[in-house]
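dude i think i finally got it to work??
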Amino acid sequence: MKTKSLLLAALSFTAVTFAQKREIRSAEKTVDDENYAEAQTEIAAVESMMGEMDEKEKEYYYFVKGRAFLGGENNKNADELLKAMEAFNQVFEYNEGDKYGEEATQYKQTAMNAIISSAVDDQNAQKYAPAADKLYKLYTLTPKDTSYLYFAASNAVNGQDYDTALDYYGQLKDLGYTGIETKYTAKNKESGEVESFPSKQQRDLFVKSGSHEDPKVEVTESRAGEIAKNIALIYIQEGKNEEALEAIKDALAANPDDDALLRSAADVYLKMGMTDEYEAALQKVIEKDPNNPGLYFNLGVGAADAGNTEKALGYYKKALEIDPDYAGANLNIAALMLGKDKEIIEQMNSLGNTKADNDKYEELKEERLQLYKDAVPYLEKATAGENPNIEAIRTLYNIHIQLGNTEEAEAYKAKLDAMQG
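look at this
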């Protein structure tokens, strides 16, 4: 009697196993017929039988489930695609993915590409919150791809969801994320396009085959500085200046010679009005890149913001020593020079009608005209490029009117009219 009961139990178990396979196979056939919503319902009904499945059946179950949620090639439903990726991940947890692992990997990549495309669409449409959410969930399913966490944080910042951004940036810091990548590139001879390869070996194979040329290795810049700066700026936005300074201090302690980080630190110091610290940070960058006029220009901006006109002029002129055509430096020097115009006019207006006052008036008038003459060369340099500053053009027009240079004034008036349409 006992033997008979065991036999009945075994037969019952076999019947359940056949039922499971039949239901999964039915769901797979529905997927093949492209009835994905129906397939999702069918595969969900099998979930209650998971306890009776063996390793092979569970592998099969998750493979079919993944395909059901992956859907067709035009599926852009991020929730379904994420469920598909999760199912394909679980394929490898059973039977070591021996039977369906290779196909699951390919399908998973398809789902991943679709999610990325959907997130990019959201980002381009300035729907930053859903973009951040999709990219973060993508990161949780592919934790080795930390760049998804970085881009999720960036979207959170753009969406002004600062709490979420700080959370994501904190995770990146804990992971020691820098974003530095080594790219192996070569130019496709047929298309002329520069293409990237996942490894040096693969790139070299294409070069040896003759289809590509000009192999190069590119190392991307660290994102550590940007992350530290964004963390600090978020704290500043929230009025937490001490936390902002602490964030920069910690980052510099770990990476004291990181140029990007030093530049970011300088940006934070400037934002907080810490002029001395700002200059010190930029001076460290200048030591490594002494022929960069932009660095001296930035120091000039910082000095001008702090109200130190003479120091600002010195930095702008240093930038022009390196690059005489640096438009920003030329324009800012002219602006600082012309800034004295208001002071001169106020002095002129304060004078009386005595002979001494009239003599002083004429002296100030000459000083004002000389100021204009001195500013003209800098303004001309600032407007010499392909995209001249319209305010600089307008200023030159007004200056030449004041100087009585009719021909020059008419020329700049024509430029001004053309730019204004």
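The CA atoms of residues 178 and 223 lie 5 Å apart.
im so relieved honestly
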